[in-house]
Request: fold
Amino acid sequence: MAIFEEYIEQTARYVEKMRREGRLVREQLGLSTLLPFKVGPGAGSGLVMKSDTFLELGSPTAGSCAFALLTDQPSHISDGRVCLIGPDVQESASGTLPFGQVIMAGGEALTEVDYHELVQSQYVGDQIEGFMVKSTPGRIWSRISTDVAQKGFSFELLGMALISLVKTQIPKATAVEVLFVTSGKADLQPLNDIAAFVEKIAKGIKERRWKERGFDIADCAFGGHCGSCEDKSVCDEVKKLLHTRKQLAHVTAGES
Reply:
């Protein structure tokens, strides 16, 4: 899994550059498992209304960036580290911030097959109380509710929650760290530059996985981003047929 190593290094260099340029950079090891809000399937509704929002992150006007990186060299990942560049949740008077999020996971047994699961872990659905994520590829638009803000919701705690969810969803991930950036829209551009290369690799992984199943999505108009595609229902049916075929194969193998 050397394909993401260069971008893990670039992300580390980006953090150091932000520090040299005088940005507020805070690194914490979220080792405690005690969180003041619920985490796990069904922990929240997955929806935070505008009227219930304490802080909005990564809106189209504020700017956002999100991507995930994977390595089979866990020593290259600082397990439990949550790095924040910029103001924390309770420090924003404007009610809105730009938002960058990078999740990095390492584990000796990890392969590119695990990458899709890692990417999906960025979009937590109903798994974090009072936290909503609306997303498109490479972008992440989130809301933090007033209720959980009053409980002390912070980026360190959000990072801890994400790390916990990644390790639950991908047990082979033995080291996970998270980077958040809220310092300014311009500070997201270097991350977006990295994200562009990561997205190309991710697309290649997706194409290889589908080819292994007998389908070529290289000509897909949406680059394999199913949520944007008018033919999503057709692909969903194909997935169901593949699943059924696998089940029949298992049954046949058991009978032989």
User: Anything to note?
Assistant: The longest strand covers residues 64-71.
